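Quick log. Single chain, no ligands specified.
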Amino acid sequence: MSAELHVSLCHEVYLNKHIHFLFLFHILLNTMTRTELAHAIYHTSHLTGTFVLRSGAVSNEYFDKYLFESNPSLLRAIAEHWQTLIPAETEILAGLEMGGIPLATALSLASGIPTSFVRKKAKDYGTRNIAEGAPVRDKNILMIEDVITSGGQVIESAKELRQAGANIIGVLCVIDRESGGKEKLLAEGLHLQALFTMTELKAQA
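-> predicted structure:
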């Protein structure tokens, strides 16, 4: 290989790497659109293979929600889009164990609103609180969850929070699976706002 060709190839490799770096830098500096975020969440979490579902049925695809809620870039983008959905009277964000906790933390960082972490069951030692972190008594609470299916856990956690003196003003989730959860929550006085429905995400397939 001639010296000139070697220099030319090295220069081309350098330019390609530089262009790739600039592209990634552009993505980091610019907020994802809602459609871009839906696409990213779906393609990050949608898996193909052989999976046994909770019902015992076998499926050739699986949506692993922990993959999107452990991705810092997606957490940041979700928090940015969520901010427009936060009721003005919100005083505390309440992240539900465990998927709601990283999401509530991301939203807290983006919005400056303190957060509390809600256990599925209080420990029988220490403070024995159902909610750890920011106090919830006499506060306007916005509950944070990752995915809503039946809404059962949110309803149980809401009961516990209300017993602890919290005033729940709503529920915020990333994905509504459209499996009746929204209606069940509303029947308990819990207004749900979802960033996406599962139908919207599947449209990105």
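Strands lie at 46-52, 58-63, 92-96, 115-118, 131-133, 140-148, 167-176, 192-197.
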